[in-house]
Specification:
heterodimer; A: mainly alpha; MetI-like fold; 2 strands; 73% helix; globular; B: 79% helix
Chain lengths: 289, 277
């Protein structure tokens, strides 16, 4: 009976698993991903009134929380978040792309597994501890940086280093995968026909790996903009990201509507990049791989 | 030709330098785990006493147990939900496929802090107003983790499912085997490495998660990353370094072991490792 249902309702001769197998996950997403985001938006337009019984949420369509975000104080934090995240993304690409290229092209196949393991293992070990270790390294008094007379802990420089460090494997692995899948005989052919290495790279390697490069870059930039742990540890409260301000509204100051408004503004600012990522990932899924 | 050799040397130098960059912090953690002095940044001699002290600290042991429990349950739920969805989505031409895929990618790309605060509001409101969902506790942490974990499983399992071709499943269905039999006898054995990879990756990421956990937890339920974060802020205890060193050794051995196993089975290791991002 179920076999017949599997055969029914599709074209061609390829019997498939029934589509309802996806419904538990769909239900889960609607309940625990879509609904929370909807409530977040509701809260961003709510108002918090003080009373002796505690803070009271008044639902409605109030824009006061949203307009409070457009204070120069918060705009500055959002601006510096985007700036440092963009810088961190560029640095990640600059550090990571040559690494991925080297792994795909120059490491002998005998050593490839070892090098790949070396890149993957940090990705699988505690992110918090590795970030904390940077605090030890960069500490001006007593750390290794102090030995070199460097004092950058609790500045944007330390945050930038932490960002590049934390997100590097996330960028390198998908880019390496698309370089590895590429047909390198095309490059060899171009060179045989007289193309310079740079021209062969620009005309062949880059276009063929662009989807992986694009999704890798966005997969680094978007989460970086929402980063909380790295600026907290290496910025030490003196250099803030939006994430730190949002956290303060929920754990410290406890103004949930304002924290929601900040989150909403962050999401709206990032919407273009999120859409770009989703579209390119869908395309890659359909045509690539 | 000379140019090419020089370029290759240059890139190798860069690659090795970046690998050193990746391992410098890990080396620092391991070295300080053996530091006799309590003050982390002050080296006064070799000692292994922090390893015993770490496991004599009930708070750390409890936090580790809680994180292991959440990670294991999360990996089981995410693997079941994600694999089922991957089978349904793998080769369907339904018009729901694209929106559903978009939703999956969205769960992975929306900044964690946004999901975290949204989940916190959701759980508190749902509990206070409707009595639905548990209070903020380890249960809400688990519920929140399963969202992106199952998305990761879908991507890994579906990639393998679509790339391995459909002939065997078609044959099985044509010969009258129902979906459950087809799954157990035909699909599962071939999907096993991907399912295993999804399980291990979601286990590790849940075990390591801080932001989502801290927003969906109450004060009493302290996971291991939460304990680390709290202690690291006010000058760290070397016991944290000791536990981290042990975990690093376990993870490195585990990953290396998995690779060795795959190589023995003749699988393309680098493709498999890089594929599941």
């Amino acid at each position: 009976m179920s076999a017949r249902r599997a055969v029914k309702g599709q074209r061609g001769f390829a019997p498939r698993y029934p589509a309802w197998l996806a419904s538990p996950l769909l239900g889960y997403y609607l309940l625990l991903f879509v609904a929370p985001l909807a409530i977040l938006v509701t809260f961003a337009f709510a108002r918090q009134s003080d009373s002796f019984a505690g803070d009271q949420i008044v639902y409605g369509f109030y824009t006061e929380q949203i307009s409070a975000v457009f204070d120069s104080l918060y705009l500055n934090v959002i601006g510096q978040t985007l700036l440092i995240a963009a810088g961190g993304t560029l640095a990640t690409v600059a550090v990571g792309f040559p690494l991925a290229y080297w792994m795909a092209r120059h490491v002998s196949s005998r050593r490839k597994t070892i090098v790949l393991l070396l890149v993957i293992i940090p990705f699988w070990t505690s992110f918090l501890i590795r970030t904390f270790a940077w605090k030890l390294i960069l500490d001006g008094n007593g750390g290794i940086a102090g030995f070199f007379g460097l004092d950058i802990l609790y500045t944007w420089k330390a945050v930038l280093i932490g960002l590049v460090y934390g997100y590097l494997p996330l960028f390198v692995l998908p880019v390496y995968a698309s370089l590895e899948r590429m047909d390198w005989s095309l490059v060899d052919g171009a060179k045989d026909l007289g193309a310079t290495p740079w021209k062969a790279f620009k005309e062949i390697t880059l276009p063929l790996t662009r989807p992986g490069l694009l999704s890798g870059t966005l997969l680094v930039f978007i989460p970086m903009c929402g980063e909380y742990v790295i600026p907290q540890m290496l910025g030490g409260g003196r250099f803030l990201f939006v994430g730190n301000v949002i956290q303060g509204q929920f754990i410290g100051a406890s103004n949930w509507p304002f924290g929601s408004a900040l989150s909403l503004v962050l999401m709206v600012v990032l919407a273009v990049f999120v859409v770009l990522y989703v579209v390119s990932a869908l395309k890659e899924e359909q045509y690539g791989a | 030709m000379h140019d090419a050799a020089r370029r290759k040397r240059l890139m190798s130098g860069w690659g090795i330098a970046v690998l050193a960059f990746l391992y410098a912090p890990i080396a620092v953690v391991i070295v300080y785990a053996f530091n006799a002095n309590h003050d982390v940044s002050n080296w006064t001699g070799f000692s292994a006493k922090w390893f015993t002290e770490a496991f004599d600290t009930p708070r750390y042991v409890n936090a580790l147990e809680l994180s292991l429990k959440i990670a294991a349950l999360n990996a089981v739920c995410a693997t079941v939900l994600g694999t089922a969805a991957a089978l349904a989505l793998g080769r369907t031409r339904s018009r729901w496929r694209v929106p559903f895929s978009a939703l999956i990618f969205l769960t992975l790309v929306v900044p964690e802090i946004v999901i975290a605060v949204a989940s916190r509001i959701f759980f508190v409101q749902a509990h206070d107003n409707f009595g639905a969902f548990p209070e903020l506790s380890w249960r809400t942490i688990l519920l929140a983790h399963v969202v992106w974990s199952s998305a990761i499983v879908v991507l890994i399992v579906r990639a393998r499912f679509t790339s391995m071709g459909s002939q065997l499943e078609e044959a099985s269905f044509d010969l009258g085997a129902p979906p459950v039999r087809t799954f157990l006898q035909v699909t599962l054995p071939r999907l096993a490495p991907a399912i295993m990879a999804g399980f291990l990756l979601t286990f590790t990421m849940s075990f390591d998660d801080y932001v989502l956990s801290v927003f969906t937890a109450s004060g009493e339920s302290e996971t291991w990353p939460m304990a680390v974060f709290n202690d690291v802020r006010f000058g760290v205890s070397p016991a944290v370094n000791a536990i981290s060193t042990l975990m690093f050794v376990i993870v490195a051995a585990g990953v290396a072991g998995a690779v060795w196993f795959m190589q023995r089975r003749g699988e393309n290791v680098s493709e498999a490792l890089a594929g599941g991002r």
